[in-house]
């Protein structure tokens, strides 16, 4: 039984906790918030025993194996190091941190302390993602030529919340653009060139960003994200003999369709009663049980490569966060 703690009991943490309850060998033990009352309400809802009125106090929990960090982007680095230095395994929400330098330090500490660390890119472990990789590996669509993926929704405009708040690491790229960028990296690896453009709003964060990635073997990726419009939220892998489409919304999808060049199709469905976070929870549990310090499915090297791509896009569009300037790390 893996005893979990949560730092930052917000919207995503609620989904995580609900799915955690569906995992047989896991339970929620501790909750930490900057507001003790909020931590207590969350703990009562999901059966946690220990509550703390500051993030820092959670490391004092006497029954704790792993912590899920769901604080705002700008806190990921600090809260990950807090737990790693206390010898507590960490699953940290995406983006892993604000830049390459921070991620490098997190990895350095995790390896130096021999403590498990993983970025919570839950989409990597969904059955639809695994099926997509299986189809590609089988050769069913032939040589992969390119990738296309989008993620867009109309975000409520509130300058005090993370989405549009630059001081909290807001903006479409780090919040949702990371998903298409992750997908292109998963399928095609690191590109040789990135071009990108963005539309900035009044709070000086990117409200929409488009990216074109090219590769040494002439493959391509067309990616976009936006807070300003509800888009199709589909992902495609184009091959010489067919196309894979991950149905909307692709980052949490339950279905994959393959359309072959002869116009025949196959659809694979993976129904579930959960949000889908249980797969990453099960991955962490399995790694801890096996004594692993990182996941083979989404390694620390993968996280390092992804944050370097995010930094590169930030440089390309001119998105600079105070104290987290991407140009300092690339």
TrEMBL record:
Keywords: Oxidoreductase. Pfam families: GFO_IDH_MocA, GFO_IDH_MocA_C3. Residues 133-244 form the GFO/IDH/MocA-like oxidoreductase domain. It comes from the Bacteria. InterPro entries: Gfo/Idh/MocA-like_OxRdtase_N, Gfo/Idh/MocA_domain, GFO_IDH_MocA-like_dom, NAD(P)-bd_dom_sf. Gene3D superfamilies: Dihydrodipicolinate Reductase, domain 2, NAD(P)-binding Rossmann-like Domain. Residues 3-118 form the Gfo/Idh/MocA-like oxidoreductase N-terminal domain. GO terms for molecular function: nucleotide binding; oxidoreductase activity. Belongs to the Gfo/Idh/MocA family. This is Gfo/Idh/MocA family oxidoreductase.
């Amino acid at each position: 039984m893996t005893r979990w703690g949560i730092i930052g009991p917000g919207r995503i943490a609620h989904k995580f906790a609900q799915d955690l309850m569906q995992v047989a060998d896991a339970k929620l033990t501790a909750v930490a918030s900057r507001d003790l009352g909020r931590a207590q309400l969350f703990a009562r809802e999901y059966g946690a025993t220990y509550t703390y009125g500051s993030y820092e106090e959670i490391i004092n929990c006497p029954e704790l194996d792993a912590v899920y960090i769901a604080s705002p982007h700008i806190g990921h680095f600090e809260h990950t190091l807090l737990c790693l230095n206390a010898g507590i395994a960490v699953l940290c929400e995406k983006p892993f941190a604000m830049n390459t330098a921070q991620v490098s330090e997190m990895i350095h500490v995790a390896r130096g302390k021999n403590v498990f660390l993983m970025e919570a890119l839950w989409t990597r472990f969904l059955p639809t993602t695994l099926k997509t990789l299986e189809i590609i590996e089988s050769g069913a669509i032939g040589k992969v030529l390119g990738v296309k993926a989008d993620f867009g929704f109309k975000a409520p405009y509130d300058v005090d919340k993370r989405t549009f708040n630059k001081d909290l690491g807001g903006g479409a790229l780090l919040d949702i653009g990371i998903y298409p960028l992750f997908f292109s990296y998963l399928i095609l690896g690191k590109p040789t060139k990135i071009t990108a453009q963005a539309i900035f709003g009044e709070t000086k964060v990117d409200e929409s960003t488009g990216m074109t990635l090219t590769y040494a073997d002439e493959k391509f990726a067309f990616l976009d994200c936006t807070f300003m419009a509800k888009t199709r939220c589909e992902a495609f892998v184009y091959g010489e003999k067919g196309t894979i489409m991950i149905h909307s919304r692709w980052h949490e999808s339950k279905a994959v369709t393959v359309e072959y060049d002869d116009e025949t199709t196959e659809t694979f469905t993976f129904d579930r009663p959960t949000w889908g976070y249980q797969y990453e929870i099960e991955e962490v549990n399995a790694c801890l049980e096996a004594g692993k310090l990182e996941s083979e499915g989404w390694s620390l090297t993968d996280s390092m490569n992804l944050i370097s791509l995010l930094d590169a896009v930030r440089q390309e569009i001119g998105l600079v966060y105070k104290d987290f300037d991407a140009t300092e790390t690339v």
